[in-house]
Amino acid sequence: MFRLACVALTVCAALAAVAAAVLFSAWWWLPAAFLLLPAVIGVGDLLQRKHSVLRNYPVVGHLRYVMERIRPEMQQYFVERSFDGRPFDRDVRSIVYQRAKGTEAEEAFGTERDVYVAGYEFLVPSIAPQPVPDEPPRVRIGGPDCTRPYDMALLNVSAMSFGSLSANAILALNKGAAQGGFAHDTGEGGISEYHLRHGGDLVWELGTGYFGCRTPDGGFDPRVFADKAAHDHVKCVSLKLSQGAKPGIGGVLPGRKVNAEIARVREVTEGRTVVSPPYHRVFSTPRELVRFLAGMRELAGGKPTGFKLCVGSRSQFLAVCKAMLEEDVAPDFIVVDGAEGGTGAAPLEFADHLGTPLTEGLITVHNALVGTGLRDRIKLGASGKVATGADLVKRLLQGADYTNAARAMMFAVGCIQAQRCHTNTCPVGVTTQDARRARALDVDDKFRRVHRYQEATVRSALQIMAAMGVRSPGELGPHQLRRRLDPLTVRSYGELYAWLSPGQLLAEPPEEWERDWAAADPDRFTV
Asked: What is the pLDDT, as a whole number, of residue 89?
């Protein structure tokens, strides 16, 4: 309101100076000229819909774009920061922005990376590339117990809750998903009217707070869950076990963001910080977990049902696999969340020191399912700093069937990584419940950016796969991704990691898996 008042006062002062110049003295044209320029710029900033920063910060917001052009210090400050304080590749963010705007272009002079530094990775091209398919493939989600399978896109909107994000951000993401035919994960904050307004396909995520289907004492309400899961826009239901950026603790929504609308959607108290429990009340053993998943699928009318986790103990995940085998029950999908994933609010030490990174976590889950003979029944999703076509291809050849992106989708709707998600003062209206700030995010402009970004990134992945000589994601393999270990040594992922054969854990576990397999107990989560 203060910023709007300043623009209004400047306009009034400029008009007054013009009137004085016309009526009294030509000398008034000097202050009139001085006032007219910011007045015109300010009014233009308020009326335009392309830049959220300028709508919230008329006139002074232009300083950001000026400073971004100063190399290298200010551009590094504005472009390379990430949500969690760790670097997010400047080139990656640039790619996301260009694709969202539809202005992506080739660059001259080739890579600026040091290709001989340890840790550098590259995909292997083929001497016989294949044609790029006209239509991107989709992944059928639904095992033998699923009666209403869903065809998932290769790249989808990852879990981000209403509450963490503004209503306009949710609307833009969902409308973009509807336009592009990809899925939108609700996050654990429940299903709001903004998730339903534009008809985008939803993956309803249920966390430990059971928001949207909770009993008065915070438990799970199966009747309400069944009623909401029956909605036509809900295509899959997902149980959140843990999140990559903060495994072992529940979600946190600061009280300043819990307005009356958020309180109604989540069924919580207005103005009070919402902290989800660190563990679920509906199960305490691997066997109870898989039984609950079977019950969720039944309540959801046979829709695909799965869970999301950040991998920790390998023996604990193997215990879940043993429970699946003994109960003859399996989820339709599992989403592996990497420890490098982002979050709006979490203790820094959790973000920095807990959880398995996506590469190791994904390979672990893929191998465990292959080794227990369950892989054909379960599709794998991957989330955690997935932003480009190359990221997508890497995750597919590491074992994933599809990917989800959160941070990149936020870039597409205008996030500038101000790192004020938890303060309710997001300058571009993405992560705030302040109506005046949120209005800066224009849904009609930003949903097109979301659609363009997703479409261009999937197309890039298909082009990369074609250059690698494969016709479909199923032909990708770990031998096609290489990592430099030192200036003289390069190994493929097929050599760096042990890859189990179907049913190998059931027949004869390899030595490096033997101890974890023996420790896995379907009736308790061993540490």
From this structure: 54
Q: What angle do CA 435, 437, 442 make, to 5 degrees?
A: 90
Two tokens at 168? 């306009």
Question: Whose CA is closest to 383, among 89, 187, 249?
Answer: 187
pLDDT of residue 129: 97
| Residue 437: strand, helix, or coil | helix
Q: 208 pLDDT band (50/70/90 cuts)? A: very high
Closest CA to 340 of 84, 81, 79, 77: 84
At which residue do the structure tokens 């700030």 appear? 437
- Written as one string, the DSSP assignment of 338-389 is PTT---SS--HHHHHHSS--HHHHHHHHHHHHHHTT-GGG-EEEEESS--SH
**By the 8 A CB rule, do 362 and 385 touch?**
no
For 438-467, what is the mean pLDDT? 95
Q: 514-524: per-residue pLDDT in tens?
A: 999 999 999 99
The share of the chain scoring above pLDDT 70, in percent, equals 82
> Which H/E stretch holds residue 274?
strand 274-275
Q: Are 409 and 400 in contact (CB under 8 A)?
A: no
> Which top CATH class is 151-470?
alpha beta
392 contacts 345 by C-beta, under 8 angstroms: no
> Stretch 402-413: mean pLDDT, rounded?
95
- Report which of 58, 169, 57, 76 is spatially closest to residue 411, judged by C-alpha positions: 169
Are 173 and 436 a contacting pair, CB within 8 Å? Answer: no
- For residues 463 and 470, give the distance between their C-alpha atoms in angstroms, rounded to a whole number: 10
Mean pLDDT to the nearest integer, 47-72: 59
pTM for this predicted structure? 0.86
- Please report, for residues 70, 77, 78, the alpha-carbon distance to residue 66 in angstroms, rounded to integers and kept in the order given: 7, 13, 11
Q: Are 459 and 114 in contact (CB under 8 A)?
A: no
**% of the chain at pLDDT higher than 90:** 65
Count of Cβ atoms closer than 10 Å to residue 265 Cβ: 20
Domain coordinates of the chain in residue numbers?
Answer: 2-77, 151-470
In the numeric block, which tokens belong to residue 430? Answer: 């993405």
Most confident of 22-26, 196-200, 385-389: 196-200
- Pairing of β 333-337 and β 305-309: parallel
Bridge-based pairing of strands 234-240 and 305-309 is parallel
